[in-house]
Amino acid sequence: MKSLLSIIAGFFICMSAFSQNDAEYTKVLTGRADKIVKTLGITDSEKYNRVIETLVNQYKALGEINDGYDNNIKAAKGKIADKAKLEEASQALSNEKMTQLYNAQCAFLGNLSADLTNEQIDQVKDGMTYGVLMVTYKSYCDMVPSLKDFEKRQLYAWLVEAREHAMSASSSKDKHGWFGKYKGRINNYLSKQGYDIQKERAAWEERVKAAGGTL
């Protein structure tokens, strides 16, 4: 009987610890969401709280998907010795993760659209990705002032695509990593368009320095 009571007591202690950790995690995510939502100009308190809840739920979903993928990869590495089979299993897990992230993002954006305008949704996307899209876009426009309008449109389109991926990334490093990948694509594109990126960057640095600033 004492043994059974000990097991039951241990179970409730574990559940209590889990509940406390979950509450703390939710509090952190709510604070993160609130920083984004407060920039949207929402005056309706019910709508404000709904949008925060939508954001918190998305953060939790992303955490579960990305953590689940990491755990599955770790388990696969522990069970599969053959390199080719491990690569095949890893690719399958990656494909599954991407599908889950895509579905979660579609549901998330659908929920946001019930309360927000397209402009506000873009603000949410920028908030989730630290505003890197516009910072990067403006940097390219400043670095290469001779960019043509169609080239600017292409750069912006790629950065929007990068933001869509970055929204679902599991960490700040991974979010910036997505923009890094697309910056490589942009640099290659500009080189093919005839721009010397190294010279453009050097000239930009000189302009900024002459104006008393730094990059």
Describe the structure concisely.
This protein has 215 residues and is mainly alpha-helical.
Structural features, described:
With 215 residues, the protein is mainly alpha-helical. The chain folds into two domains: 2-116, no CATH class; 129-210. Helices cover 83% and strands 0% of the residues. It has eight helices and no strands. It has helices at 2-37, 45-79, 83-113, 118-128, 132-143, 149-166, 172-192, 197-210. The longest helix has 36 residues, at 2-37.
Topology overview:
Blueprint lengths: L1 H36 L7 H35 L3 H31 L4 H11 L3 H12 L5 H18 L5 H21 L4 H14 L5
Helix pairs in contact: 1-2, 2-3, 5-6, 6-7
Global outline: globular
Low-pLDDT sequence parts: 11-19
Pairing-aware structural class of the strands and helices?
A: mainly alpha
Query: Approximately how much helix is present in the residues?
Result: over 70%
Distance between the termini: 70 Å
Number of strand segments: 0
Our Rg estimate from Cα atoms comes to 23 Å
SSE order in H/E notation?
Answer: HHHHHHHH
The biggest beta sheet reads: none
The percentage of residues in β strands lies in: under 5%
The domain tally reads: 2
Key traits:
215 residues, 8 helices, 2 domains
